[in-house]
Amino acid sequence: MIASIRTERGSSTPKQRQRLHQLKRRLGWTDDQLHEAIGAVSTKVLSAADASRCIRRLGGGELPNPPGQKPAPYQGRRQKTDATRMIAPGHKEQIERLLCEHFGDLESGLAWLEKNFDVKDPHDLLTAKRAGEVIYVLKGMIERTNE
Q1: Is 141 helix (H, G, I), strand (E, B) or coil?
Q2: Residues of the chain with pLDDT under 50
């Protein structure tokens, strides 16, 4: 439920007061000029509704989260998954070791890697998910040859 903007005297938010002072600086005004424009002796005595009206009137637009509305959900860094996590140096070494173990030499293994996974070097796999696929296939191939 979205609450209505508070109209009590002095209910302006710190973000609203900050925006009013940013507008004052942008317009090159003094504190007295700002107070005259908003019709109050201080931005702290404005109601949230009055502060919003003053911000709009002075060309400040809307605040990202207007008073009385729920803030936007947190948009922090997303957790990296195997599909987006970059290949680790250990993956490259493991792939090269498995290629040598199965094919006998690295050059033959790299030729197979290029043919089947369209990359010339294990580091070109880029993501951990793709490296994991190669490792899974190579381990299966080695297991079948050892049977």
Answers
A1: helix
A2: 1-4
